[in-house]
Amino acid sequence: MLPIWIFMAALAMAPHGAHHHRKHHAVKHSHKPEPPTAQPPLEAPPTAPEPAPAVPPVASATGDPFQFELLRQPGPLAAPALTASQDEKLTRKVQSRRRILQAHQALGFVTLVGLAATLVIGQLNYQDKYGSNGGDTRRFYNAHLGLAASTTALFATTGILALAAPNPYRKPVRFDAALVHKLSMALATAGMVAEGVLGPITASREGKLDQRAFALAHLVTGYATFGFMAIGVMAFVF
Amino acid sequence: MRLRMIALALLAAGTAHAQSPDGEWKVDGKASTITYHLVHKLHHVSGISHQVEGTARLFANDKTQVAMRAAVASFDSGNVNRDAHMKEAVEAARFPNVELKALADGVAIPKMFPATVNKTFKAQLLFHGIQKVMDIAVTLVFESATRARATSNFAVSLDEFKVERPSLMFVKVADALGIDADLIFVRQP
Fold first, then answer.
1. What per-residue confidence (pLDDT) applies to A75?
2. Which of A89, A164, B56, B156 is at a distance of 20 to 30 A from A47, taking alpha carbons?
3. Which residues contact A59 (CB under 8 A, 6 or more apart)?
4. Cα end-to-end distance, chain A, whole Å
């Protein structure tokens, strides 16, 4: 049943043929049909504010109350749907990245521990050769050499894994923990290369007066390299 | 003539009653945020989206429909690697948006402002291609007749939405994904 106000609106808006004022019009009644006259275009009635819908639209035949759409347009970041091959390629990239980065994490921690051990043995080796209580027994030399070689191999493998991991989703460059990790590891890489040069040079200066200076430089560079690597790991962990 | 005047008077009175001041409300995207929270043994991760779309429709019988959407890629945790990992975990290329539809009864514009209304909405969340229905408690603060703030905090299970939980140092994040919504709705003319 229509509300009463709709009925009243219809009544108020109805044409008023029977109540038309005639005193302003000189109209002669005639039995002849009058020719049609051009009517001025009707003005659109003023639009009243649209009232709120009385009840929510009927959902659907299934009665699912959530079958309504209020957001008509696609989202602002809407991208074309992936084709089957694009989807498959992306999935492979994501899976590959996950596997590679898990290996990178595992090797990274092993490398950090290995580098710590290399540094400790290297410090003991330096103390043995140049310390006041050292006897230059060379008892730490082979251990240091072995640890240094294996840590260098681990470091290189860990770095290659990170560089080889695919990037299925674009990553903007900004100053965050990820960038700190990359910068720290870049500096650690420079340190590892320097150590790889300083170590053999130091060993080759056996018996020379400047060997101690090279050994000290090798030791300090070792500490710095470990420091950069530790910062890189902590940036990602914390 | 008299009948017409009476009809017009009744029309004005009837319209004033049936024309609800409620209507359609849209989310002010610039002022609204949705934040997710993840807990890992080592730290707490949050990502914020400032690109929320939403519309709410209030009907004359005090029923309310709400629809909202946020692009997954718009969430920013402050770490590009974590954001990329998040997109991988929720398959952002396949399911680019998180969408929520909600229904409630008894939401009407109050007579005085500011006014607070606490309401539980029945909501359907579409996330990672999975739909779940849940009850969400919302606090509505009507700041004026044309502006309202809706805040809500709730949690969902990543496992229920079949999201592979990200891990760090081989330890996965907790299953609960906390959601904080802080939305400004502006009534449309």
1. 59
2. B56
3. A65, A66, A67, A68
4. 68
Pick among A58, A69, A73, A77 to test the B interface (most B CBs inside 10 A): A77
Give residues 117 to 156 of B whose Cβ lies within 8 Å of A: 122, 124, 133
| pLDDT at site A83 | 85
Angle (nearest 5°) at CA A98 between B49 and A168? 55
Give the predicted TM-score (pTM) of the model: 0.73
**ipTM of predicted complex:** 0.74
DSSP string covering A103-123, please? HHHHHHHHHHHHHHHHHHHHH
Task: Give the pLDDT of residue B189.
Answer: 87
Query: B114-141 in b/e burial notation, b at 16+ Cβ within 10 A?
Result: eeebebebebbbbbbeeeeeeebebebe
Kindly identify which residue of chain B lies nearest to residue A105, measuring between CA atoms: B169
Per the structure block, which two tokens stand in for B176? 């609960």
Closest CA to A223 of A119, A107, A84: A119
The yes-or-no verdict on residue A221 having pLDDT over 60 is yes
Is 70 exceeded by the pLDDT of residue B53?
Answer: yes
- pLDDT value at position B106? 86
pLDDT of residue A57: 53
Omega cis (within 30) before B114: yes
Report pLDDT digits (tens) over A129-145.
999 887 889 999 999 99
C-alpha distances out from residue A21 to A15, A29, A39, A87, B7, Å: 13, 15, 18, 76, 20
User: B90 to each of A82, B50, B52, B158, how far by Cα in Å?
Assistant: 15, 19, 18, 9
In angstroms, the CA A199 to CA A149 distance is: 11
